[in-house]
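Researcher: Next entry: t-SNARE affecting a late Golgi compartment protein 1 (Pseudallescheria apiosperma).
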Amino acid sequence: MMSSTNEEDPFLQVQQDVLSQLSSTRQLFTSYLRILSLTTTTHAASPTPELKSALSDLESSLASLSEDVTDLSDAVAAAESAPDRFGLSQAEVDRRRRTVQEVRGEIDDMKEEILKGGARKNTSRGKAPADDSILPDPNKFGLGDEGEEDEDHYAEFEQRQQMHMLREQDTHLDGVFQTVGNLRRQADDMGRELEEQSHMLDVVDEMADRVGGRLQTGMQKLQFIMRRNEDTLSSCCIAVLIFALILLLVLLVVL
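Model: Predicted structure:
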């Protein structure tokens, strides 16, 4: 059985988990930006439940990711102080430091974008009307109110449909991500099983070679014994025939 590098170095294991979690966080961040853009476009008075849920999931994922990156940063700092102690080259230490810096920079960019998104929402909610002293046009009252109400209902319905489509897309993306993860784990299991079966086949082949050698030796011994038995039987038959011939001659002489 072959041991992989990830099983020997804990840093690479945590790094793989961080990169996988970063990929999931990117999907959450993209979903949050889509919902935020739709909410900002419709000038909603307060954040929608979809936006709150997306923001909560994103902040939770970023918090967990930040903790893991902090652990990686501490590990890199320890390796930089004594690379030979951990059996690492300076190039490998530099690569790990760059990886941690890139992940941390992407996390900071996401957090900064969240703060900007909150500022845009506050600005849109705090915007004052152009001029409160101007009275509304009388022509807007009456039958015109019904048309504007229908347009508001239509805009609200369209927004709900878009939110529903976004939730379905996020659900499908999560399903695809989980399916890919399951396939990867199955591939790893299949690889380990194939290695085990290959090792078992090597053992069986070695045992078969040993048994074949023993069988060949036994066959040679058996053939030798058979040849000796054949020589002995032939001698006995010849002796019997000679004795019978002598007996016949004696009987002929006597008679």
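Model: Note for the record: The CA atoms of residues 223 and 229 lie 10 Å apart.
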